């Protein structure tokens, strides 16, 4: 990781800009890995609470939350939703490997 993040306009050349993007990508990967540990914990907790892997109400709640956050941050909410739906589907598939598919 870089010592200090530069604002895009402070990047004097493509090499510097690419380093900044690579650093952000590394941080995003680390956050996704951390998020997956919460999915693993959900796998442990859901059976005791009688919950199945895919809870449609929760899926839509998460999507609505990230769309709102994207809009607030000036990020395309449609792109954000698309990315999160992929992430959610992956997470649910991970849960279903242990919990099995269920019906809501």
TrEMBL record:
Keywords: Coiled coil, Isomerase, Lyase, Pyruvate. It holds the Pfam family CM_2. GO terms for biological process: chorismate metabolic process; salicylic acid biosynthetic process. One of its GO terms (molecular function) is carbon-oxygen lyase activity. Its EC number is 5.4.99.5. PROSITE patterns: CHORISMATE_MUT_2. Residues 8-99 form the Chorismate mutase domain. Residues 14-72 form a coiled coil. The keyword DNA repair does not apply. InterPro entries: Chorismate_II_sf, Chorismate_mutase-related, CM_dom_sf, CM_II_prokaryot, Isochorismate_pyruvate-lyase. Substrate binds at residues 18, 35, 46, 95. PANTHER family: CHORISMATE MUTASE. This is chorismate mutase.
